[in-house]
Amino acid sequence: QKEVEQNSGPLSVPEGAIASLNCTYSDRGSQSFFWYRQYSGKSPELIMFIYSNGDKEDGRFTAQLNKASQYVSLLIRDSQPSDSATYLCAVNIGGYNKLIFGAGTRLAVHP
Amino acid sequence: DAMVIQNPRYQVTQFGKPVTLSCSQTLNHNVMYWYQQKSSQAPKLLFHYYDKDFNNEADTPDNFQSRRPNTSFCFLDIRSPGLGDAAMYLCATSRNSGGYTFGSGTRLTVV
Asked: B96 vs A96: CB contact, 8 Å cut-off?
């Protein structure tokens, strides 16, 4: 069974700090990795994707991928209260761009 | 703006009464997906369409059916809803690769 594992949290960080969110996946054949943000009662929205080992930066967000360790992470710099949400990690598992999602990590940024 | 639209936003149905959820898109994406998300759980893939080719996940209950009459529209039919089917139903679209665009979701309540 192909799986994506995330710590459910909550991860509590002070405003302005760096939030670090982690994800592991089981399918070694996965090639595409995504981070989605989901506010309570809303649908997920895409934050970042990463395909290659290493780091990818977009504004305050950095995605990190290590395929050998089957590990993906998301760093959020200068965290803001508006970043408080659940962050879902998603991994491509095969044809037709099928994604399997983790259950998410709840992030709480306090002033 | 190009988007994915789900109707209705909230749906209340009676136990055992058939219900249909709808999804439309103006993105002209060839792949459409239906996910079920229960509270604090990962979105779970029910079906996806690559153009008109229908793909059913092995563990999707027979109680769930889907139709895609054209590129723009996709429907989820629940033939006999049970209390365990109460969830957020998410429609998403994508091209052959890359992240999904989600609709706003339909929150289904079974009474």
From this structure: yes
CA A100, B25, A105, A21 torsion: positive or negative?
A: positive
- A97 CB neighbours in chain B (<8 A) are 31, 94-98, 100
Contacts of A20 (CB under 8 A, 6+ apart): A73, A74, A75
- The strand pairing partners of A54, in sequence order, are A65
Q: What is the pLDDT of residues B58-100, one digit of tens each?
A: 999 999 999 999 999 999 999 999 999 999 999 999 987 788 9
Q: Return the residue in A34, A43, A49, A86 with the most chain B beta carbons within 10 A, the one to mutate for interface testing.
A: A43
Closest residue to B104, CB basis, from A43, A97, A104 = A43
- Interval B38-60: pLDDT, tens: 999 999 999 999 988 999 999 99
